[in-house]
Each structure stands twice: as C-alpha cells, then as structure tokens.
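--- STAGE predict ---
source: upstream dedup step, 1 unique chain passed
mode: sequence only
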Amino acid sequence: MTNIGPTAYCVAMQYIEGNRIADLQWGTTNGKYAILRFCATYVGPSMSGTWCVSIRNSPITHSYVINIFVPPNTASNKEYTYIIPPPPSGFTWATDASNAISICFSPAVGANFQTPTASAWVAGNYLATTAITALSSTSDSSLTIGDVGFYADPNMTGRAPEFAVNNYEEDLTECLRYWYPLYTAVGLVSSATQIYVAAAHWVPMRVGPAVALVGTVRAYDRGVAPNIASFANYSTTNENFSQILTSATGLTVGRTGSILADAQVANYIAVNAR
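--- STAGE serialize ---
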C-alpha cells in the first residue's frame, strides 16, 4: 500500500452500543479496565510493518491508539491481547442504544489522524500513531483480522476469556434488532387506495426503525393486489411496525388488507434500525 494523503485513511471499523459497555462506567471516577483481544493472519513475504488499532468514543473527542508490529514471513493466526485502562472522567460515553465506541483496525492512516502518543488516552480524533508504516500491496500479501473481543476486566486479571462463536439463534436475534425484511403485515382497507397494516417486530429493535420499499411490493384485499406506491408512518416504534400503505385505486373498503406474501422474496419492506 502506498503512502496516502494527510486526510485519508484505510480502516476496518466496528461500532459498539452504549448499553453494551455501560458496565465499564467509562467517563466516571469508577471506570473499569477492559481487554481487547483479536487474532491476525499475515500471508506473504511483503506483509510487514507497523499498523494500529484504536478505540474512540462516539463524539470522537478522545482516542486510545495501540501500535501493532506485523512480523515478516508470518502465515499463522497470532493472538494479540491488550489491557485498556479506563479513560479520564469528565467526558460522556453513551449508555443507551446509540453508538458509544468504535474499534478501528488501521493499516494506513494520513498524518491528520496520527498521534505521537501510543497506549494512552489522548484528546482528539486519532486512528494511528506516527509510527505507522504503510503495508505493501503486492498480490501475494494479505492481512486478516478475526476473533475480535472487547471485555470488561473489573478484577484487572489482564486475561481475556476464551473466544467462543455465538450460536445461530443468538446471532439472528441480535441481527434482527438492526434490520430485517418484512414480507407481510395484516390490517384493514380504509379507502380505495389505502390499507392500514400492523405487525410486531421479531424482537424489539435498537431504535424506532426507518422503512423503505424494496422491489415491487403489493397490497392485497383478498380480491386485487395492486402495487404499493408509497406508505406513511402511522405509529411505527421499536416494538411494532404500523404503516398506511398507498396503492392504485381498486381496493374494497372494509376488507381485511395486507402486504402480499408470496414467492417473490426480492420484494419486501426493509425495516432498518441501524
């Protein structure tokens, strides 16, 4: 990878909600230590240099940056573990469903996002230190990050728990808090062009979601099935989907109405709380 401009950067970033780190009590005088653990695989003789991982609060007023050295000629899944001290008290860390922190793996970062101080909390928006070196971008080289874990360490053990992959049901439940495709919801035809429909979300969503038509979604009154042209939010919340669907004329007032659930899986309403 060649050198980049001062305002450019290449990062792999993950946000974490405030309710997932609330037990750390960061931003208070009772802040707890945390542990960051991940594995990295380097493939190819050109993959060597210093890259960085950073932890930042959501307003991006404070950053903690760690230098990582990539040894040359390494093709094994090496585990890294770092103890993260609590940040200084006095600035806010979210404890609700909003973004609280970001964990960023950075192989290339411009000068504007580099701090001279490693392994310490500093004020500012930083992704790397001045020690970072651009990684080579030859066709025979690759860098893979995996098994990332961020854990509270209130007893200051300095050890991360063994990495474990969640089962499918747990992962699906977590994912449904952020997004899912809605194929059907049932309600009542209120006019020749409108159906009021409602449905409970699979699980309570992170926040009240935005909704959008994807493909050709149809209304249905047990007689006709015109395309839905638009919809208006009635009272959609993080618990329930509730919308007024507008379609072409032809619906029969008083009939049960719904979104048509059929084999056209590419046509749905996207429910998005990301």
